[in-house]
Specification:
Oligomer: single chain
Shape: globular
Largest sheet: 6 strands, mixed
Strand order of the largest sheet: 1-8-7-6-4-5
Order of helices and strands: HEHHEEEEHHHHEEEH
Radius of gyration: 19 Å
Structural class: alpha/beta
Number of domains: 1
CATH architecture: 2-Layer Sandwich
CATH superfamily: Chloramphenicol acetyltransferase-like domain
CATH topology: Chloramphenicol Acetyltransferase
Distance between the termini: 74 Å
Helix content: 40-55%
Number of strands: 8
Number of helices: 8
């Protein structure tokens, strides 16, 4: 049998970050619910805005509005010092952003607090900053890189502490919910694991405006019926409040 050649390749800092993230998430009992949504009004409203908000921005604000009304979506399970739930007073959105770092594509995570209270234009500007500013000039990205440089045993200890002991620390560092969208590239994950109670993604948006939206949630915190109701309310918020805000943006531009 012919030998196979190859070579050793060390983990880059972005790959270390993802490896640490997956390890911290590996024991989360994640359940996935899916709802087919008719977002044709949202598609039409986006078309009327010169600088249309990305779908990630729309999902971030819409879900944070739902979470403001449903405190169970702002809770986290913490196993230490004994199993308990911790409820955040406000939402912190974590958004996955692909960036190039030293010749390699990697995933970084930007966070924004109380997105439900921010105009879409501000959220658009924040996401644009995450996508265009040099990686090491974005505070959250720079902090992740610095953390990923630490020795493995220390990183493992810090991840364990940050995700197991303090709800406040967990929310501040990782958010209360996550959004990761890849549908624009033609494919999407059917399951996401992360150290957060809830995360969102969606499939490819069809020509008629329908799309499969998935809510991935920690079953220790959330049951099936509340998750199903949250998805239904998310669709309603997207079709009403998000459409209304985009139409207002379009009117300002046309004035």
């Amino acid at each position: 049998m012919a030998s196979v050649s190859g070579h050793w390749k060390s983990l880059s800092l972005p790959r270390r970050l993802v490896c640490d993230l997956m390890r911290a998430s590996s024991r989360m009992p994640i359940i996935t619910f899916e709802r087919r949504m008719d977002l044709s009004p949202v598609v039409a409203a986006r078309a009327s805005v010169a600088s249309a908000p990305s779908w990630a921005v729309l999902f971030v604000k819409a879900f944070s509005l739902v979470a403001a009304r449903r405190p169970e979506l702002r809770r986290a399970f913490l196993p230490l010092p004994w199993p308990h739930l911790w409820e955040a007073d406000v939402s912190v959105a974590s958004v996955a952003v692909e960036r190039e770092y030293r010749g390699e594509l990697g995933v970084f995570f930007g966070t924004v607090t109380t997105p439900e209270n921010r105009p879409l234009s501000e959220l658009v500007a924040k996401l644009e900053e995450w996508k265009t500013q040099p990686v090491e000039e974005v505070y959250r990205f720079r902090r992740s890189l610095r953390f990923s440089r630490l020795p493995y045993p220390l990183r493992r200890l810090l991840w364990w502490y940050a995700t197991s002991w303090s709800g406040k620390l967990k929310a501040r560092n990782f958010g209360t919910f996550g959004v990761s969208l890849t549908g624009a590239s033609g494919a999407t994950a059917t399951k996401l694991i992360c150290p957060l109670t809830t995360s969102l993604n969606c499939g490819v948006i069809q020509p008629d405006g329908t799309v499969d939206v998935r809510l991935h949630f920690d079953h220790r915190v959330l049951d099936g019926m509340p998750a199903a109701r949250a998805l239904a309310e998310l669709e309603e918020v997207l079709r009403t409040e998000m459409v209304a805000e985009m139409m207002a943006m379009a009117e300002v531009v046309h004035v």
